[in-house]
Every structure is written in C-alpha cells, then in structure tokens.
Amino acid sequence: MAANDQNTGKEQILEWIDKHVVRFGQSAFKITSSDGEVIYIDAFKNFKGAPKADYYFATHNHGDHFNPALALKLKKESTHIIVPNSVKQSGSDRGVATDTMAAGESKKIGNLEVRAVPAYNPRKIMHPKSKEYIGYIIKIDNYQIYHAGDTDFIPEMKGLRPDIAMLPVGGGPTMGWKEAIEAAGAIEPGVVIPMHYGMLPFTKKAGVNFLKNWKGITKIL
Questions:
Q1: I need a surface site. Which of 14, 30, 75, 159 has the fewest CB within 10 A?
Q2: pLDDT digits (tens, 9 = 90+) for 112-157
Q3: In the chain, what's the furthest Cα-to-Cα distance?
Q4: Which of 157, 2, 135 is CA-nearest to residue 57?
Q5: Are 197 and 151 in contact (CB under 8 A)?
Q6: Element (H, E) at 7
Q7: Residue 1: its pLDDT value, please?
Q8: Please, what are the domains in the chain?
C-alpha cells in the first residue's frame, strides 16, 4: 500500500470514529455499528439517553470498568454480556455474564468477531497477570478495534496492528503516556484513542501529552 493510500485509510478511520464512537469517562466507550448494533466496553456509569446494549464488554471487575447493575439496566433479552473467565469464576460478575473469554481465545459472539488479549501489570500489584484480565480486539464494520483494558506495555501487544487502539495513558495502575507511546510503536495501530485519564488530578493532561508526543495519528474523545 502506498503512503497516500495509508493516509487516506486513516482519514476514513477518523471519519468512522466521529460517527460511531463515544467515550464517556475513564475507559468507557459506546460504539454503534453501521447496522445499528450498540456495543459498550468498560461502561461503569450511565449517561442520559443511553440506548440498550447489544453487547456489553468488561475487561476486568474493578468498579471503574465493570458495573453489573448497569449491565442489567442496559440489557435486553438478546444482549451479550462478556467478561473474562476469571471474573465469572470469582463470582464478581454477580451472575450477569452471558459469555466469557480467556486471553488468546477468539470466538464469534453474535455478529461480532472477538479476540481476547492479555492485560496486566508486570511489576505492579493492581492488575497482576495471575488475575487473567483481558483486553479485546473486536471487528466492527470491518475495522479491528483493540481496547487494551487496564495494562502496562506488555510483549503480547507487539504486532497486533488494529485499525484503532484504545490505550490507557494515565499512569498509576496503567501505563502512563510515555509508556503508551512505546506500546503504540509495538502495536502499530492506524489510530490511537487515549483512555483511562481525566478522573484523577494527576491524569488530566495525559491524553494531550500523548497527542503531542506520539508521531502517529491520535484521536482525543
């Protein structure tokens, strides 16, 4: 693919994001497919007029990423509520999960093709590898969207090459914006959407710092 073709492709991704993706705090997103299916990822708080979910993904069971009561509120009869195997096994899903995934697993869930990617802190206690938390690569409208969950830069990210990478940048329990730049270089995404910043004072400028320093394309939501 020629460089101009690559740029055109990334412009199309940005246009698609503007029409289909909403971030509403921390790492919470609502994505609406061209067919009108509604996908939530790490939705932990409600927002006015939130439509019912076709899919509700949780990367792990911390309160700023997974809210079983909200999942039930957004649920309709056909909704898929997807959590890591470890979350279901611990009972912290409170019985709401309809589907589970483990790192390395790929499966079709409803109309979506989904792959689970490990998410962990190699040297911190908040998200140890032993908890078996995950991120997701979800194919929507022929775009591969990687939501990394709460994680630092880990070897499993190398060469994922999604069209869109939603990466934590706030630091503390996740990688900060500098480490996220290293991760983005290994992931090779088309567009990066920074996440997991803004709630705590020390994270307020992390998204802008990533934008200013990452040499690739960044979309701030």
A1: 159
A2: 999 999 999 998 888 999 999 999 999 999 999 999 999 999 999 9
A3: 50
A4: 135
A5: no
A6: helix 3-20
A7: 32
A8: 3-218 (3.60.15.10)
